[in-house]
Amino acid sequence: MSDLDQLTQSLARNLKRWRGERGFTLDALAARAGVSRGMIIQIEQARTNPSVGTTVKLADALGVSITTLLDYEQGTHVRLVPREQAVRMWSTDRGSSTTLLVGADARGPLELWSWTLMPGDVHASDPHPDGTTELLHVGAGRLTLVVDGTDHAVPAGTSAVFESNVPHAYRNDGAETVEMTMAVSIPPAR
Question: Which of 51, 143, 148, 185 could form a disulfide with 166 if both were Cys (CB 3.0 to 4.6 A apart)?
Fold first, then answer.
């Protein structure tokens, strides 16, 4: 089984499991996530690989981390995630990418990300649920963090924290590659 097939199967199994645990019908999850009922059915039947945006919307609507939806295995108190099992969520032809390193669901999902953003690249994100907080640290380069339409310069060595329930984006306007680490804290589903 290829990595993509394994990821598709894990997402199908975990989406169905969490939807059931939350007591959401297909229609209820579709409405909460802003994703069509048909798309959710296709994902739960492992017939499609949704976009990162769709996966984030489903995780947010369920109140779980993306890691929880994509995890191959669950249940241990200590979980080590080798480099080869970290999940590459998106990448560009220029070499920009994000990798979900690890996540947890204690007191609401918590995710740790590693980002590489090449010169000239940008990644925009839809608003997350109220109460979602992002913390980031730029290790190299100069990030332009755009929160609700306002640009914030975040040079190497600088950290930032913000409520991410508004449109936001990460942009590299410089000539140097941006390397950053980000943690995302998501409130539990109500």
Answer: 148
Contacts for 67 with CB less than 8 Å, ≥ 6 apart: 87, 100, 102, 103, 104, 109, 111
Distance between alpha carbon 24 and the CA centroid of its chain, in Å?
21
With CA atoms as reference, report the closest residue to 176 among 148, 146, 156.
156
Give helix then strand counts, H and E, for the chain. Answer: 5, 10
Instruction: Find out whether 134 and 182 touch, Cβ atoms under 8 Å.
Output: yes
User: Which tokens in the block code for residue 112?
Assistant: 């740790």
Q: Above 70 in pLDDT, residue 39?
A: yes
Give the whole-angstrom CA distance, residue 46 versus residue 27: 18
Please determine, for residue 76, whether its predicted confidence score (pLDDT) is greater than 60. Answer: no
In order, the DSSP letters of 88-139 are EEEE-TTS-EEEEEEEE-TTS-EEEEEEEE-TT-EEEEPPPPTT-EEEEEEE
Angle at 176 between CA 172 and CA 177, to 5 degrees: 65
| Nearest-10 crossing angle of helices 37-44, 52-62 | 90
Are 113 and 86 in contact by the 8 Å Cβ rule? The answer is: no
Q: Is the pTM of this model over 0.70?
A: no
**Secondary structure (DSSP) of 154-172:** EETT-EEEEE-SS-EEEE-
